Amino acid sequence: MTAALAGWIDGVRGDTLPADDRGLHYGDGLFETIGVRAGIARFLEAHLARLASGCARLGIRFDSMAELRAEIATAVGLAPAGALLKIIVTRGSAVRRGYPPQGTESARRMLSLWSDDGLPTSIAEGVALHRATSTLADNPALAGIKHLSRIENVMAAVEARAAGAFDSLLLDGSGHLISGAMSNVFLVHDSRVLTPRVDRCGVAGVMRGVVLRECASLGITATDGRVTLDALLSADEVFITNVRLGVVPVSRVGEHSFRMTDIARRLAAHIETLDA
Amino acid sequence: MTAALAGWIDGVRGDTLPADDRGLHYGDGLFETIGVRAGIARFLEAHLARLASGCARLGIRFDSMAELRAEIATAVGLAPAGALLKIIVTRGSAVRRGYPPQGTESARRMLSLWSDDGLPTSIAEGVALHRATSTLADNPALAGIKHLSRIENVMAAVEARAAGAFDSLLLDGSGHLISGAMSNVFLVHDSRVLTPRVDRCGVAGVMRGVVLRECASLGITATDGRVTLDALLSADEVFITNVRLGVVPVSRVGEHSFRMTDIARRLAAHIETLDA
Predict the structure, then answer these.
(1) Are B28 and A137 a contacting pair at CB < 8 A?
(2) Minimal Cα distance from B1: which residue of A?
(3) Considering only CB atoms, which chain B residues are within 8 Å of A148?
(4) Which of A252, B25, B80, B114 fits a disulfide with A257 by CB distance 3.0 to 4.6 angstroms?
(5) pTM
(6) How far is B100 from chain A (nearest CA, A)?
């Protein structure tokens, strides 16, 4: 997985975009990373729903959903057995220089197809997480959506790597656990599953939504709520999720180890069979 | 001011960039907006010093400062009487998909030249500010630098516009005043000038640095420190700064009015005469 296999800008095959795009200048846009397996864009409706919701939240008028669906179908048709399809929608080229949009920008959509070599099998045995030194800001207007302003995630991922960890865990300014840098996080207490709310910061991951939904179908009680660091450290089991990883158990956070019970593995095996 | 007059990507005239640039994908880069007046890039050394410092903080290896200086000279030579020169430096094209950089990316530099029609003269009479509903996250690793992940600033600027205000004021999660969405903020108490520290969040504006320096040359005591919202509302005078605005007095924040004393006007007139 080194470079994109193919790219489309507003429906045209290509791999360059105008340098005045507000996505570049201000992180003013949204993205989705979609797993593609055996010719199917997995959980596509959840991705497109989140994208539409993000556009509404940012005030980006995106009226090309039908065209985007057609382009996704084209890209999936070209995909190798395991691939990732990344969609970016930005507010488009700047109409004027400066932060405030003018309201007359024309949204731009970009697709890129990437091969996915798969995950190391060792992660099924559990991964180590690092507690990030930085915190996430309360911002209900931006919470949940997958906008392009991700330097916090980049730096938290750099920290994880430097610490020899698989991902970083991020808290908010009040000490509540929110998510990983590239994942959502779940706790198990007495066989009940809990994940942090993402109504003040964090991203509402598509796989997070799938896990909450599929817990119900497996007879597992699952909710979201405020989660303290103490609750994390007293959990019976911890796991992280994203669309590429699926469900991955956490073996430790910093120096604290977790036992490996079976809820993460049951969920991982079940969700691996699903495409929607 | 509607579209860039000219652009350069890694030294070549052009206005497109590779779609796999990490500046677009993750806001993983930095920018500077430089005022150009009568053939001079104003406060250039301060801009380049901040850019270099930002690259070091993000771990972006930028070894093209000499080329960048030459390109700035070329752009300034093409500039109309009043112009803005925007520089973007990103970590470059993704070597692998995903947040963590691989360390082998090659930084990309982009210049664009914009005409500047100047400011409405009415702002010298004072501008109104809106208190943003969102807060800024504590993140010492990112504080002060001008990175590309600016969706918070975009949304705070949208809020200001919706409130009929010139800019928004942003606080941190602990209720300390930090900055405007597109400006730094200063308070005057008993003829002493105070601006919020930007060591935990916010941007260390080039004009902010110029004001702190020039206060000394005008015999005005000026410091940075922690600033509460109460301190703001009890100030004798408030003003905001950025390189395009210079120094602009604030007439009100929400419903609270400030009297117009003379420190902002003295600073504005003095700094208007400076280019470095």
Answers:
(1) no
(2) A96
(3) 24-27, 149, 151
(4) A252
(5) 0.96
(6) 5
Q: How far is A79 from chain B (nearest CA, A)?
A: 16
Are A88 and B157 an interchain contact pair (Cβ–Cβ within 8 Å)?
no
Identify the pLDDT of residue B1: 43
Of B9, B97, B114, the CB nearest to A97: B114
Q: Output the six-digit token pair for B101.
A: 């950089």
d(CA B176, CA B225): 10
Percent of chain A having pLDDT more than 90? 89
Record: contact B16-A18, CB cut-off 8 A: yes
Give pLDDT tens digits for B83-127: 999 999 999 999 999 999 999 999 999 999 999 988 888 898 899
| DSSP states of B76-136 | HHH--SEEEEEEEEE--B-SSSSSS--S----EEEEEEEE-----GGGGG-EEEEEEEEEE
Buried b (16+ CB within 10 A) or exposed e, B87-117: bbbbbbbbbebbbbbeeebebbbbbbbbbbe
Chain B residue numbers touching A27 (CB-CB < 8 A): 27, 148-151, 154
How many of the other CB atoms lie within 10 Å of CB of B33?
A: 20
Q: Quick check: A16 and B19 CB within 8 A?
A: yes
Taking the mean position of all CA atoms in its chain, how far away is CA B113?
17
Contact in structure between B110 and A19 (CB atoms under 8 Å): yes
Nearest CA in chain B to A147: B151
d(CA A139, CA B137): 9
What radius of gyration, in Å, describes the C-alpha atoms of chain A? 19
Residue A1 has pLDDT above 60, yes or no: no
Please tell me the predicted confidence (pLDDT) of residue A242. Answer: 97
Interface predicted TM-score of the whole assembly (ipTM), two decimals: 0.96
Mean pLDDT of chain A: 95
Q: Which of B154, B158, B174, B182 to mutate to test the interface with A (most CBs of A within 10 A)?
A: B154
* % of chain B at pLDDT higher than 70: 99
Element holding B236 (H helix, E strand): none
Under 8 Å CB pairs connecting chains A and B tally to 212
Contact check, Cβ <8 Å, A155/B98 = no
Q: For A21-35, A161-175, A249-263, which range has the lowest pLDDT when averaged over its residues?
A: A249-263
